[in-house]
């Protein structure tokens, strides 16, 4: 019955948040905590800032408010927060513009808006995000708007804040009729935003553009009371229940904004320009809210191509939200989507999602004009890997080469759909990279928006992803064949380094067991160096470079280890694998393993299961596959 207890606790918590008092009481709150009167934009910005920011060594920022749900979009988010939310919070003009998120399908636009909405619901329940309104106001109006214009400068000086809004028609009426102008008596309540209750958060979704009624945005005449009050300009005969009303002080999502008829959009002009809108027969109504819309690139382009939209266009701030371009982040997206779906219990063999992500990212990248940076290398650089032969390349420079990189390509939902359909087709209880790549390939034929040229290109990317996977698979199996891989690599490296040191210093090496003095083991050193193509002539320079690296590490008090020198690590790995190659090849491909081979296979499978995240079945399949690769 724990859940009943939790429900009761929840109710208590919500009850504690209830506050009601008079305008006079509210003034005391404002004096103590002027934050409660902040604008909608400033509240949103503070909510985002409060969740925290991480800055990496290159100065890139990660806003934690978004980064728990959205992966690989840090650059776009940073721009969105800084250029829009931060400026808007400082009352710069951008806050009067509609924020338009523009990006490809399934790129995370709706998720950004959903995070803001959920965030606000929560934030208004905290002390920092608290806000108050005139009781009973359909637009949860800021109580300070009750103060007449003449008196505002004085109050603003005393409290150091700004009061901008006009009292809404309904509150104006109440003040006069019910409270006889006694502002101090007007009741004030604390407001908790809730999308379900339509408080502070609104969503507008256009219906048929021709018959769209502006009332959905700004409210409408209340036909049940109009006869009673006799006039359309009596606020009691009007329902202030449009999305713009309901979202006052908070956020309104404008879905499919550019699909709306342009005449309809004109109504937004005054709101975005002057911060107020027209409803019925009333004076302009002030609104303090963030309006977020989203659209795709094609729709946006045709919108701006239309001259008639110029005025609107200047009232919109467009923020591009391109796809993520990092393989490892793409994998996280799939994991998240799989976790949320009914695929969650299926075993997906290691590296499968990576293979899919490699394909997807390749479809999104644009070929750089820089020398030596092909698509695959660019993909690696973007993902933070260092790439052989490319040093000191400025990633930012690559990123700035194309403004619209990431605006097209394969979307994450497509990949998840293909994984689902791969699952349906298999009778095994797992799927691996090959199943997924095959399914991605088959799906291209059914994909509605792929041209024949694109299809060719995509097929090529699938084969690139397949090759990348093959390398990963081989490495995995070879590693699993080495008893304690890390340790073997370390031993081999220490051995190599001892010899290199002796060689460079013209010294001998002492055999640890016999104590005998020996020449450095040239054969061993060469067998490692040859793995990465170091010629006889270049060996001395290479060895010296390694020694210099070691002493540089020592000076900084850092330990030189297996991962400290990229190329050396690769050489060691290749050497270990080369020694094993025949064993692996024979063991994995034999149809009738002898007793020893069988033992080895079982050992390797056990290691794959224990240390590398396979199931016995998927490990078996991997061995078979790698066996066939090695025998090609
Ligand atoms: N970069 C990302 N990080 C995490 N999840 C993502 C990312 N991009 C997309 N997703 C996920 O993919 C799904 C689709 O994204 P979302 O609905 O936000 O896209 P959208 O841009 O609104 O697409 P549409 O144009 O189709 O409306 C969501 O579940 C979202 O969480
Ligand atoms: Mg969407």
What do we call the CATH topology of the domain at 17-320? Answer: Rossmann fold
Task: Specify the oligomeric state.
Answer: single chain
- Total beta strand runs: 18
Which CATH C-level class of the domain at 17-320 is it? Answer: Alpha Beta
Looking at CATH, the homologous superfamily of the domain at 17-320 is P-loop containing nucleotide triphosphate hydrolases
Q: From the coordinates shown, what is the CATH architecture of the domain at 17-320?
A: 3-Layer(aba) Sandwich
Please state roughly what percent of the residues sit in beta strands, choosing from under 5%, 5-15%, 15-25%, 25-35%, 35-45% or over 45%.
5-15%
Attached small molecules: adenosine-5'-triphosphate, magnesium ion
Residue runs with pLDDT of under 50 for 5 or more positions:
none
Q: What's the average pLDDT? A: 89
> Which of globular, elongated, flat, extended, rod-shaped describes the shape?
elongated
Number of helices: 27
Q: Can you summarize the main beta sheet? A: 5 strands, parallel
Distance between the termini: 62 Å
Widest sheet, order of strands: 7-10-13-4-14
Structural class of the secondary elements? alpha/beta
Round the Cα radius of gyration to an integer and report it: 33 Å
The helix content, as a percent range, equals 40-55%
């Amino acid at each position: 019955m724990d859940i009943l207890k939790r429900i009761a606790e929840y109710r208590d918590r919500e009850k504690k948040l209830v506050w009601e008092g008079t305008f006079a009481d509210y003034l005391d709150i404002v004096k103590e905590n002027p934050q409660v009167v902040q604008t909608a934009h400033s509240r949103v910005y503070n909510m985002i800032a409060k969740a925290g920011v991480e800055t990496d060594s290159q100065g890139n920022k990660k806003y934690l408010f978004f980064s728990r749900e959205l992966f690989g979009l840090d650059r776009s988010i940073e721009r969105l927060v800084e250029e829009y939310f931060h400026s808007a919070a400082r009352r710069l003009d951008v806050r009067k513009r509609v924020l338009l998120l523009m990006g490809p399908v399934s790129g995370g636009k709706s998720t950004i808006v959903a995070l803001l909405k959920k965030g606000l619901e929560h934030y208004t329940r905290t002390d920092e995000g608290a806000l108050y309104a005139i009781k009973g106001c359909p637009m949860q109006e800021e109580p300070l708007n009750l103060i007449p214009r003449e008196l505002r400068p004085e109050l603003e000086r005393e409290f150091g804040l700004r009061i901008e809004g006009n009292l809404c028609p309904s509150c104006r009426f109440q003040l006069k009729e019910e409270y006889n102008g006694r502002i101090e008596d007007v009741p004030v309540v604390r407001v908790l935003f809730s999308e379900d209750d339509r408080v502070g958060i609104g969503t507008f979704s256009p219906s048929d553009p021709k018959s769209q009624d502006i009332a959905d945005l700004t409210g409408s005449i209340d036909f049940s009371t109009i006869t009673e009050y006799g006039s359309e300009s009596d606020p009691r005969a009007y329902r202030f229940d449009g999305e713009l009303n309901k979202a006052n002080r908070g956020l309104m999502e404008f879905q499919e904004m550019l699909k709306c008829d342009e005449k309809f959009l004109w109504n937004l002009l005054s709101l975005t320009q002057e911060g107020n809108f027209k409803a019925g027969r009333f004076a302009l109504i002030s609104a303090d809210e963030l309006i977020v819309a989203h659209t795709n690139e094609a729709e946006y382009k045709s919108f701006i191509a239309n001259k008639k939209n110029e005025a609107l266009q200047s009232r919109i701030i467009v923020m591009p939200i391109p796809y993520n371009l990092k393989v490892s982040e793409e994998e996280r997206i799939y994991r998240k989507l799989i976790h949320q779906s009914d695929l969650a219990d299926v075993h997906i063999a290691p590296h499968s999602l990576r293979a899919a992500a490699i394909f997807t990212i390749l479809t999104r990248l644009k070929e750089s004009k820089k020398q030596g940076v092909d698509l695959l290398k660019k993909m690696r650089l973007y993902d933070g890997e260092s790439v052989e032969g490319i040093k000191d390349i400025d990633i930012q420079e690559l990123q700035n080469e194309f403004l619209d990189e990431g605006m097209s390509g394969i979307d994450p939902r497509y990949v998840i759909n293909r994984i689902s359909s791969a699952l349906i087709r298999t009778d095994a209880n797992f799927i691996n990279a090959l199943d997924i790549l095959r399914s991605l390939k088959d799906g291209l034929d059914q994909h509605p928006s792929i041209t024949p040229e694109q299809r060719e290109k995509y097929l090529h990317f699938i084969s690139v992803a397949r090759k990348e996977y093959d390398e990963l698979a081989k490495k995995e199996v070879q590693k699993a064949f080495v008893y304690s891989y890390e340790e073997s690599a370390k031993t081999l490296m220490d051995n190599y380094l001892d010899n290199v040191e002796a060689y460079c210093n013209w010294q001998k090496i002492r055999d640890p067991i016999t104590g005998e003095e020996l020449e450095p083991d040239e054969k061993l050193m060469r067998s490692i160096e040859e793995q990465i193509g170091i010629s006889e002539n270049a060996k001395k320079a290479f060895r010296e470079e390694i020694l210099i690296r070691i002493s540089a590490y020592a000076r900084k008090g850092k330990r030189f280890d297996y991962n400290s020198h990229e190329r050396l690590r690769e050489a060691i790995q290749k050497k270990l694998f080369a020694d094993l190659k025949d064993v692996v090849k024979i063991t994995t491909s034999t149809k009738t393993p002898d007793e020893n081979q069988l033992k080895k296979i079982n050992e390797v499978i056990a290691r794959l299961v224990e240390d590398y995240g396979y199931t016995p079945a998927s490990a078996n399949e991997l061995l078979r596959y790698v066996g066939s690769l090695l025998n090609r």
